[in-house]
Structures are given as C-alpha cells and as structure tokens.
Amino acid sequence: MKWRHKKFTFMVIPDANSTVRRFQLSAVILVIGAIIAIAILASSITAFLLYRGNTGQIGQLKQQLSAATGDYEQMIENKDDHISELQTDLANLSEQTKTMSSRMNAIKKLEAELREMVGLDSADSTKSKAAKTSSTETDEDAEQFAMDGGKGGEELPVSDDEMALLIDRTRDRLLSLDEQIEIMKPELELTKVEVAKQQKLLAVTPTIWPTDSRRITSTFGIRKDPFTNRATTHAGLDIGGDTGDPIYAAADGTVIEADRSPSHGNNVLIAHSNGLRTHYSHMSKIRTTVGTKVKKGDVIGDLGSTGRSTGPHLHYEVIINGEHVDPSPYLRATRRSN
Q1: pLDDT the model gives residue 156
Q2: 184 in the same domain as 106
Q3: Does 154 fall in a domain?
C-alpha cells in the first residue's frame, strides 16, 4: 500500500505580491477528508429529504388536527343540543306527571261521587271528604299546570341546581303516582262490587215517584175520611193528577195482583225483595198482568178515579212485611235520576 506514503503539495497564492504558501497532505488525510466531505454531503442531502417529507407529514397532521378539532367542536355542540332536548323532555315529563296527578285525584273524586250517588256512605265518608278535598286542590293544580292554553313570560337559562330539583320532584311525583295506583286498584275493585250490590238493592227499592205529578193531596197517617168525615188511618199517599197520566213501577219486582176492587178500584200490587211491596190504586186503566216482571220506571197503568175516590189521583202504598209505612221517605228521585 505505497500510496499511503505519498504526499501531495498544495500551493495557495493569495495575490500576485504575496508569498506563495505550500501545504503538504498525505494521501490518507486526503482520503479521510474526502470521506468526511462525502458523509457531510450525504447527511445534508438526507436531512433535506427528511425535512421535505416531514414538512408534508406536518401539513397532513395539521389538517388532521384541524378536522379532529372541528369534529370535536361539533360533538360538543351536538352534546349541548342533546342535553337541551333531554332537559325539554324532562320538563314535559314533569308537566305530564302534574296532569296525571290531577287526573288521578279526579278519579278519586268520581269514585266518591259515585258512592254518594248510590248511597254508599258509613265508614267511607271520611275517605270521600278526603278525596273531595284532594281533588279540589288538584283541580287548582290542573288549572295552574294545564298542558294547553295561553303561556308566556321571560325565558331564562336553566341552572344545574334547578334541573336537579326538577328531577327530584318528578321522581317523587312518579313514585307517588305508582303508590296511588297500587292503592286505588283494590279500592276501585271494592267500589265496583259495592256499587253493583247497591245498584241491585236500589233497583228493588221504591225510590222514584210513581207519577209525573208531585202534587200530594193527602198524606200518610190519621186524617178525616172524605166520605164519612170521621178520623181514620190513611194507609198510603194520595198524589193528584189528570186522568190518563202514566203510573210507573217504583222498583223492580213481580206483579202479584192486577184487578179491580170496590175500595181500590183498578189497582196493581207489586212484590219486591226483602218483604217489600208497593200498591197502586184508583187507576183508570191497568197496563200490566199478574206474573209480569217489571223494571223500575215501567208504565203499569193510567191515573184515574175508580173505586172509593173523590177525583183523579193515585193512592200509593209501601208495605214492608205486611205493615204499611209512610211512602214519603222513598220519594227521592225521578225516573231519570234513580
């Protein structure tokens, strides 16, 4: 390897008047210098190429970051919109629970009124009063929290505390409604059974007026007989009217007599339950027959003045276990409201 020992002389001439400078470098140093120069050049080229590639990647990353930021901002906006929708749904649910509470108490009120209409009272009177009171309060709530109707006012943002309070109130209302429903189920079933029994009892109880007329011409009890002018016991109630006016069965029952007698004239006797009977006398015409099952309010004859009578009227009797009683307490309703 003789070339390692060779030397190379380099002359540097600064200008024409300067001294010439000479440098001698061995071949090894020149080779090493060349290698270093080539390495530096290669490194520079590599760095330049890497820089150009990274610049492109940085641009792409910036674009991706910008897109991700936009997506994130959109997600936040969508989330805010979703939260707003949930808050609105919760507000609607709260309004609906208020309305449901109002309707639940309205049902209680109807139940109390139904029991009162059919005469169910006794131990349930306190419950009925409570239901009426509760329903009155709820009616006011219903007016205050009605779902329909005019609304207005200033719109303010909802705070987290207000939403938390609304959630708690709505949850409490729903729990209360659930409890009320569970309580009302057996109560309504019991009321249904009791009302059905009461309806059957009312059907066979003479609670309606047997005539359209309300003009009483003679009451039950001791009176002066219109024919003898002596004190006698009047076994029924006389109701004045016009000849031909309809006469109605005062309750469900079976016709056991439909004939004519000297004292009662054309008359009908109806047997009801529990030993109770009603008797209708002085008819101008009988419109039923023995054995007929009649319903409360059915026409059984026409008002008249047959038999022992001074003018057109109905002599109406109520008989319990063979004993005549005053019919007046039974005259509580018309045919439409019985």
Answers
A1: 64
A2: yes
A3: no
Q: Over range 64-83, report the average pLDDT.
A: 70
Region 251-280: mean pLDDT is 94
281 in helix, strand or coil? strand
Instruction: Determine whether 307 is exposed, middle or buried from the number of CB atoms within 10 Å of its CB (0-12, 13-18, 19+).
Output: middle
For residue 321, give the CATH number of its domain. Answer: 2.70.70.10
Residue 176 and residue 220 share a domain: no
Reading phi first (left if > 0) and then psi (alpha if -120 to 50, else beta), residue 9 is in: beta
- Specify the pLDDT at position 258: 96
**For residues 113-124, average pLDDT:** 60
The span from the first CA to the last CA of the chain, in angstroms, equals: 139
Q: What is the 3-state secondary structure (H, E, C) of 164-179?
A: HHHHHHHHHHHHHHHH
Residues 302 and 259 in one domain: yes
What pLDDT score was predicted for residue 128?
Answer: 45
Encode pLDDT of 188-243 as tens digits.
777 777 766 666 666 778 889 999 999 999 999 988 888 888 888 889 999 999 99
The DSSP call for residue 320 is: E
Q: Tell whether the model's pLDDT for residue 100 goes beyond 90.
A: no
Cβ contact 225:294 at 8 Å: no
In terms of domains, do 100 and 184 share one? yes
* Domain annotation covers residue 140: yes
Distance CA 93, CA 170 (A): 8
Question: DSSP strand E in the chain: where?
Answer: 7-12, 21-26, 216-218, 221-224, 231-234, 237-240, 246-248, 253-261, 265-271, 276-286, 293-294, 299-303, 313-320, 323-325
| Number of compact structural domains in the chain | 3
Residues 50 and 126 reside in one and the same domain: no
Tokens representing residue 189 in the block? 């079933």
Q: Tell whether 125 and 228 lie within a shared domain.
A: no
Residue 304 lies in a domain: yes
- pLDDT for res 38: 83
